[in-house]
Design goal:
6-stranded mixed beta sheet, 3 helices, about 150 residues, Nitrilase/N-carbamoyl-D-aminoacid amidohydrolase, alpha/beta
Length: about 150
């Protein structure tokens, strides 16, 4: 738990957020907001699972949450981004686009963060396409290849 501008943030790293005990420990240590830096790879329909699990942490603690996910390809993994903020009731108050780097400012000084921009939801086909493009583009770029030939 650390304090910034009078707000105490409980940091729960990556998959620890999937277990109730980490959020409860952060709350017991005085956290007012849960901050979750994550490197969660893309899988079809995983976003709904993320929201369900993280809303369970909110129900258990009554704390708002800032979830920040990695974007880009690394070896065989593709990270979809889609960082978001949920208020203490589990309502979505801000969401970044999936598969795009970016930044947003959201005021989270209490149980009801000030609403920010919510990126439009991509279709399943668009998500799969963006995951494929991101994975291939980043693999080629990070390995210094001049290009690639993809046979379909």
């Amino acid at each position: 738990v650390f304090e910034l501008n009078g707000v105490k943030f409980g940091v729960i790293i990556c998959e620890d957020a999937w277990h109730a005990s980490a959020a409860q420990i952060a709350k017991a240590a005085g956290a007012q907001v849960l901050l979750i830096p994550n490197g969660s790879p893309y899988h079809m329909n995983k976003e709904a699972v993320r929201f369900d699990i993280l809303r369970a942490r909110i129900r258990e603690t009554g704390l708002p949450m800032v979830y920040v996910n990695l974007v880009g390809g690394q070896d065989e993994l593709v990270f979809d981004g889609g960082s978001f903020v949920l208020d203490a009731q589990g309502a979505l108050v801000a969401k970044m686009p999936e598969f795009d780097e970016g930044h947003a400012m959201v005021e989270v000084g209490g149980a009801r963060p000030v609403p920010g921009a919510i990126a439009p939801e991509l279709s399943t086909d668009a998500k799969v396409y963006r995951a494929l493009v991101t994975g291939v583009r980043d693999y080629i770029g990070k390995n210094g290849f001049p290009g690639a030939l993809i046979g379909l």
